[in-house]
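hey so u asked for the seq, here:
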Amino acid sequence: MRLHSFLCVCLLGIVCGTISGEEAVLVPREVFVGDRAQLTFTVSGLELPKGTLIELPVSEIVSSFDATLESVLVTSESGRTTVSVFFIPWKTGTLALPSFVVEKVTVVPPEVRISSIIEKTGRDSLEPPRPPLLVPGTTWLVYGYIAAVVLVLVVSGVVIVRFVAWVSADPRDRRSARYARYRTRILLRSLKSLEKQACTVPEAVWYGTLSHAFRVYLGCVYASNPSLFASATRGEIVEQLSGLGALVGALVGAVPCVQDIDSFLLRIDLIRFSAPVFSGRVDERLEDCALVRALAERIEKELSA
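ran it, structure tokens below
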């Protein structure tokens, strides 16, 4: 097929004549092997009607091992015929593109020069591999991102573990722990308020408030009833605590703790009813607040055991 096309081109060139291209322009100006290039030149001896546009089939042009033709366009405008050849060169130096026939006229493209990278750079081997260029500070940014991810994973793990433990726990235990935090928070809030009033409130009033806060706490602990011991005497409180066997649980038989409660309530009653006037014993009031706080910690610890 190639031989047949070549013979046809030669015969047409002999019969119809051969025209060489003039005023050639190569785009880009410097072309290397493997680059896509465009060669545009004018043909003065080829007259075509104005506005003619012809795209020659590349398959009918004689192929060449030196270049690959992609397309050939022929246009006619203002009495001039222009040919544009799009190709990819495969050799350096002077390159002669294959000729082709347009309207029974053989057109020979002008020769072009293909540059050599080796001659231009003076290197005949590939560059060694190089690491990617990093913007200054990128390394620290990556380390910070990794640290943030690790922190998020650790926090997520802790939250998930606690949530699973909370879900798998007995609902009664969850309610008990929640109520324990509630009653302890109420007692500590009352103690903090009393500490601020230690210098301004008379002893009888101050210790009456302390006794009420402690009685409310004991009622919440042993019967979930804040008003259980609100109006009871010290003896009634001790008696009821001793009889709450099924409700007190771990505290039943804890005689030292019950005795400490009894002793503390007795001390409060003695101060309330023997010294109704403010005497300025601020340090003792703060110590009594600390004693109530310590008793509450012992009670909660024994209940949770």
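The longest helix spans residues 138-168. The chain has a mean pLDDT of 80.
lmk if thats what u needed
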